[in-house]
Model the fold of this input.
Amino acid sequence: MNRMVTDTAHHYRNAEWKEADNASPRAVPEPWAMDHARGLPQGSRVLDPGAAIVRHALAFAEPGHEVTAPDAAEAATAAIAAAAFARAVPVQVVQAPMTNLPFAATSFDQVLAWNVVCHGGEAVVRRALSEVARVLRPGGSFMETLLSARRLPVEQVKAPCREISRNTRVFDGPGDKRHPHYFCTAANLLSLLRGVEILALFDRPHEKPGSSPWHLLAERLA
Done:
């Protein structure tokens, strides 16, 4: 079960982002990401792939960082552009998938991929991480989350699922998990990374118990 499994979750999210607003939990920046942002040099070039509805893009841009926010969902890019205009914060908005980032090598000082790289099979995850490494400058930092395998039993209680490729599940019923999602152990995650030094790796709950994703902080090697 190692056939190519593509990222299709943005089709679901596109409809969701049309209805979402700043009251959505997905619009609230994560404290861990913002703590790291405060330590970045002024004017850092930050990439926020899968930026969704302005969860981190504006929060990174307001202190003066140069933020680029690509997303595969058209509704997400529209929401980011509108919010940036309303708050008079410059953010470069691009409609593009995480597996084909339209940027030159070593273009960014920081990449933040929050709740996005898990959307697809292992080949998609590997390709997205390769793109991150390509656009990140040597010495630049990379933060991401990926679904922990510890979360899988919690999700299986909610809805039946089937494994469609290695570590990749599709769940029955409503929600974005009817699209492929990748659940991994720490060993799986580390095996996918190339050219980076791991600075931190842990899993902890987000909104509720059992919702644990991996949190990774890494630095691009020369």
Q: What stands out?
A: The CA atoms of residues 89 and 103 lie 21 Å apart.
